[in-house]
């Protein structure tokens, strides 16, 4: 049963790395949103540090929204998804593997890029580990929850705005705890509480979201 | 279980839903009217808030129905997904706009009440924020239903979304509360709610019950419309309208 997980994960990662351009686009989008922001607020360092938690997390949410639309689309269009649904292997496990591959190719990139970006915003260096930890725990949850919305809107070719209405309300807890951990770390306060809660959300997501994703895929393919 | 199967028959439901809707509407409107009248006119003036507290008689029932509506949609969604009961799907679809309206009403009346009490239309208070997000959850269900063409698929997709949403409602609520306590801004002191006097409480309960019955009535009416639209090509609907 686990072999199907690894097979799907390997296949999706291979596809992702064959199209390096897309990987770079994720990164560039993230960098651009963060880099353009100071041009709007002015270069006052205090303002930038104050808004940096919100800015980083909004950039992550928007990037997730844009990239999630491609999560099942190619498989849906070339019929692979139907074969997944028909196969005797549990669909939830396949969905989990797809989300894991998606996260390795996008969320992990944000985690890696975040130290550079927050230092660019003038965030003190002692906050960087917490920021990376919050992104590490938060972004997979975004992928898992977002995949439910993507799977539900699979039959709609242009679902971008609708998708934002479906998944942004569900992103509220991750946003609150993720940005909360960042804010606490910048202020020099303990951030462990928020990180634990992000971890709890991730555990809940990993265990329950794949079932919902599988159900949503089946509904969309009916 | 036999009555359940009979109730699941769509023509049968269409026939009996009309008297049921009327049975909900008449006491609902009467109770709500009594509750609102009792609240707006008869209840004594609050010693702290003056007359402004009277909006409570609209606000509290609406807020209650916003939660009740979403929960009932999630229950219907579960039934629709597990037992594939068509009526549950139709209920979910019909209840969404009604619930969203009550949520909107709760937000509007809350903000009107907030102006004289807190001095501002909107506070990023935990309860207000989670109510706003609840409104977005409702709108998501409605938008998803409008976007998907096949009514069956749309209703099943909405069922799943409502289920996912209802698991998230408590998480969102507690996370927003956590966020607000962390973010200790200007503290909105909630005046310790004094135990309500009977002549204030009775109209409130009547209004809440009345609003709930009205919710049932409107939803049932929406279900009837939804049912006719979905079954418009079936024989029993055609016969219904060919007779004149």
Please specify the SSE layout and strand pairing:
The complex is a heterodimer of chains A (222) and B (244).
Chain A: H1 2-18, H2 20-41, H3 45-68, H4 73-78, H5 80-86, H6 91-105, H7 107-120, H8 128-152, H9 160-186, H10 192-221
Helix pairs in contact in A: 1-6, 2-3, 2-7, 3-7, 3-8, 3-9, 6-8, 6-10, 7-8, 8-9, 8-10, 9-10
Chain B: H1 2-8, H2 10-42, H3 56-83, H4 86-118, H5 126-147, H6 151-182, H7 198-230, H8 235-242
Helix pairs in contact in B: 2-7, 3-4, 3-5, 3-6, 3-7, 4-5, 4-6, 4-7, 5-6
- Total helices of chain A: the number is 10
| String of helices and strands of chain A | HHHHHHHHHH
Described by strand count, sense and barrel closure, the largest sheet of chain B is:
none
Question: Could you give the distance between the termini of chain A?
Answer: 25 Å
Helix content of chain A: over 70%
Q: What is the share of helical residues of chain B?
A: over 70%
Residue windows where pLDDT falls under 50 for at least 5 positions of chain A: none
Main β sheet profile of chain A: none
Global structural class of chain B: mainly alpha
Instruction: Tell me the count of domains of chain A.
Output: 1
Radius of gyration of chain B: 20 Å
Strand content range of chain A: under 5%
Strand content of chain B: under 5%
Cα shape of chain A: elongated
Task: Categorize the overall geometry of chain B.
Answer: globular
- Gap between N and C termini of chain B, in Å? 35 Å
Total number of β-strand segments of chain A? 0
Question: Taking all residues together, what is the mean pLDDT of chain B?
Answer: 84
**Element pattern of chain B in H and E:** HHHHHHHH
Number of strands of chain B: 0
- Count of discrete alpha- or pi-helical segments spanning 4 or more residues of chain B: 8
What does this entry look like structurally?
The complex is a heterodimer of chains A (222) and B (244). With 222 residues, chain A is mainly alpha-helical. Chain A contains ten helices and no strands. Chain A has helices spanning 2-18, 20-41, 45-68, 73-78, 80-86, 91-105, 107-120, 128-152, 160-186, 192-221. In chain A, helix 8 packs antiparallel against helix 9 (160-186) and helix 8 (128-152) runs parallel beside helix 10. The mean pLDDT of chain A is 90. In chain B, helix 3 packs across helix 6. Chain B has one domain (25-184, 199-231). Chain B is globular and about 60 Å long.
